[in-house]
Amino acid sequence: MSTNGDGSPLPPLHRPRYGVDAPAVPIVNGAAGVACCLAAARWRRGRTATAAVGAVLLAFTGVYLHTTLRGKLRVWARELDRIGLKGDEQLLDLGCGRGAVLIEAARRLPAGRADGADLWSGKDQSGNSAEATLANAAAAAVGDRVQVHTADMTALPFADGSFDVVTSALAIHNIPSHEGRCRAVDEAMRVLRPGGQLLIADFWWMAGKYAAHIGQGTLRPLGSGYWYGGPFLGITLLHVVKPTEGTGAQTMRRRTEGNA
Length: 260
Ligand SMILES: C[S@@+](CC[C@H](N)C(=O)[O-])C[C@H]1O[C@@H](n2cnc3c(N)ncnc32)[C@H](O)[C@@H]1O
Description:
single chain, 260 residues, seven-stranded mixed beta sheet, binds S-adenosylmethionine
């Protein structure tokens, strides 16, 4: 059972609506799937192949919608339970959108704070806005500990080391260039305090690149509940604990020794 930082059970979550990630994807695929099935019902030639394509597109759309509406919420609830929050942490969610992760985190921080940063792109999430996020936080009874900021992940308006935990769910890959994505990852590490935890969930091939850029952390696939249509569009979690001065020096030393 999910619990507050103080060990009491979390109350059930009422009414928040988190929208659909990249809504054009299920609309286009779903419409193409329906069109193929209708065509298969009318045509004789190529009926089996057309019906098969339609079925695949509809299955893709169903899995996608399950992930965006339910699966990712369950996965994040599980992952946030795993990281040992005490309940008084300052957490930052990068690309928070309508608050799916931000609010799930805030529920575990009765004596802490959850900040979200976003540019509110409606292409990346339906109905995306700061107001929608704050309304969701209020509906989940965590409005008093949630703040949102209109800010670009590649240039965060926060001081170095201001957060105990930084999260980001399916957001960094939206930055078009590799350099921009690396800047966002650098910014996430900069605003994290030494010893703090960074959790980035993104497409598996992207998460691997972020890990290579940072040069540390563990990678773990998050399972079928977080597939955007199928395993080829699965999400992997990068988990990094920012080195404290001592451990950083040790890591550096080990690397230097390894190179010698
Ligand atoms: C697919 S949505 C995911 C939202 C949320 N993390 C979730 O899992 O429900 C991606 C989010 O990243 C935001 N985003 C994209 N580029 C951004 C940038 N450069 N800085 C801040 N936010 C950005 C979008 O506005 C959108 O809200």
